[in-house]
Design a protein that fits this description.
Layout lengths: L1 E6 L2 H8 L2 H8 L4 E6 L12 E2 L9 E2 L2 H16 L6 E11 L2 H7 L4 E6 L4 E2 L1 H7 L2 E4 L9 H12 L11 H4 L17 E2 L2 E2 L9 H19 L1 H4 L4 H9 L7 H8 L3 E7 L2 E6 L5 E5 L2 H8 L9 E3 L2 H11 L4 E8 L13 E4 L5 H7 L6 H9 L4 E5 L2 E8 L5 E6 L8 H15 L5 E5 L3 H10 L2 E2 L4 E4 L1
Parallel strand pairs: 1-2, 1-6, 4-7, 5-6, 5-8, 13-14
Antiparallel strand pairs: 3-4, 9-10, 11-12, 12-13, 14-22, 15-20, 15-21, 15-22, 16-17, 17-18, 18-19
Length: 464
């Protein structure tokens, strides 16, 4: 990796980069670091790099020209080495906040150029022309961008292979997985009547690892609740949802299938949004918890599905939603496919069936939705003597449904055959088959029971 620093104080940066761990890594050519004096690229005798800001105001602003010429020279040097054009970062107070995730991303670039601001700032035109991004290391004011550049390089270089002696230390310290580091101890075993935790002296590495993870979680929850909110969102969400697995299978499967945008995972509730349908899914332990989660949603035109009546009532009152469907959640919990009834010709439907499916499926007014489901290849049809007798599909959020058997073909077991086929197809994809049925639909309830699906004790509410 090559890092170039564009600065008015190259000696300051070079001294830092020649010291300690970074100095040793640089000497071993584990990464390159080059410091460039902006003044060397000026075109006036005084080597002036700044001037008064247009529009008035205090302070001085760095010229665009010398920075631009310096960055062109850096790009030429990289090209001569056969390197990619450098990713250019301007260090400004207006930049995005710097964090571990950003450091990891920047470490993936073959060439990186950091431009250090000074005085009141840099002419915006050179930032707009050459900058790939702007970064700030914090909400405070410094005299220049040199220290931010050194902070960034220190964090980035740790991720370069070979820079750290213990390769694991780069991924077990603070902020890895959004956790602060666990407490550390060394000799003596007892200091000022305080002992090292016994587990660290046990020699049982599994217990030590568990203790460290627990302490890291406890410390993060206490000191940095903002970080803890981001920690292992999927794992914590699934842990919460599995407390009532049948009721929450829609949310569980959305996460498992990689379709969930997790918005909040709390000790008293979970909120996510399905990426395909944009439906908000939420569950909460109390009304207050539900209200807090709802405040994170954008209600205009939104659909919601929730798992408690008091949350449903909050949604209707808060967002003036009036259309509510109360459903049972049903889940096929076994891993083995069901035996499909003989004598039925069941096939995947294509877009040519959009008209007839839309005509018979009256729960959705938009024919475009039906067409999209057909295009996704998740609609199946049962044929009798070559004629379509009924169909079923998978909704965009992942639930089985859209089941309809045409009047002349009812009471022949076609609905049962379609549901069995759906279940087996979902199992083949590695999914847990689930569906949501209206609580007043006795025939559908009977069908789910016949196919062996387990029914939730609670209710799922669709609100639009």
């Amino acid at each position: 990796m090559r890092i170039d620093i564009v600065t008015l104080f190259p000696e300051l940066c070079d001294g830092f980069l020649s010291t300690s761990i970074l100095g040793r890594a640089r000497a071993k050519s584990l990464f390159e670091a080059h410091c460039h004096q902006i003044r060397d690229y000026t075109k006036n005798k005084q080597r002036q790099t700044d001037d008064y800001p247009y529009g008035g105001g205090c302070g001085m602003v760095l010229y665009a020209q010398p920075i631009a010429d310096c960055l062109r020279a850096v790009a030429d040097q990289c090209a001569q080495q056969g390197r990619a054009k450098p990713h250019v970062v301007f260090l400004t107070a207006a930049g995005q906040p710097y964090n571990e995730e950003t450091a990891r991303r920047l470490s993936s670039y073959e060439s990186l150029a950091l431009v250090c601001g000074h005085y009141e700032g840099i002419d915006q035109r050179v930032i707009d022309t050459f900058g790939d991004e702007e970064i700030s290391i914090g909400d405070y004011v410094l005299t220049g961008g040199e220290f931010p550049a050194m902070v960034m390089i220190d964090a980035i270089s740790r991720m370069v292979p070979g820079v750290l002696k213990n390769e694991e230390s780069g991924v077990t310290e603070s902020f890895h997985e959004n956790l602060l580091e666990y407490p550390q101890y060394t000799r003596p075993e007892v200091w000022h009547e305080k002992s090292v935790p016994a587990v660290l002296l046990s020699g049982d590495h599994a217990k030590v690892d568990l203790w460290r993870r627990q302490k890291a979680e406890e410390r993060t929850r206490r000191i940095r609740p903002d970080l803890y909110e981001k920690y292992d969102l999927e794992g914590r969400a699934l842990e919460y949802l599995k407390r009532d697995k049948i009721l929450h299978m829609d949310m569980i499967e959305d996460i498992r299938r990689g379709k969930a945008r997790l918005i909040a995972v709390r000790e008293d509730g979970v909120l996510l949004q399905d990426r395909d349908s944009s439906v908000y899914m939420l569950t909460a332990r109390t009304k207050d918890a539900g209200e807090r989660l709802l405040s994170m949603t954008e209600p205009e035109g939104a659909q919601y599905t929730c798992h408690q009546k008091f949350v449903m009532e909050s949604i209707c009152a808060r967002f003036e939603k009036k259309r509510v469907s109360e459903c049972f959640q049903v889940v096929y919990t076994k891993k083995t496919p069901l035996e499909e009834p003989a004598g039925f010709d069941i096939r995947v439907l294509d877009e040519s069936f959009a008209g007839i499916v839309s005509e018979h499926y009256d729960l959705v007014d938009d024919e475009g939705y039906v067409t999209e489901r057909l295009r996704a290849g998740v609609m199946i049809g049962a044929f009798v003597d070559g004629k379509l007798a009924g169909f079923a599909g998978i909704h965009s959020e992942g639930a089985m449904g859209m089941l309809e058997v045409f009047e002349p073909f009812r009471r022949q077991g076609i609905g049962y055959a379609l549901e069995i086929a759906q279940i087996n197809r979902e199992l083949a994809k590695g999914h847990t088959p689930y569906a949501q049925i209206f609580t007043d639909n006795d025939k559908s309830v009977a069908l789910q029971q016949k196919t062996g699906l387990k029914m939730s004790g609670g209710r799922v509410y669709w609100i639009s």
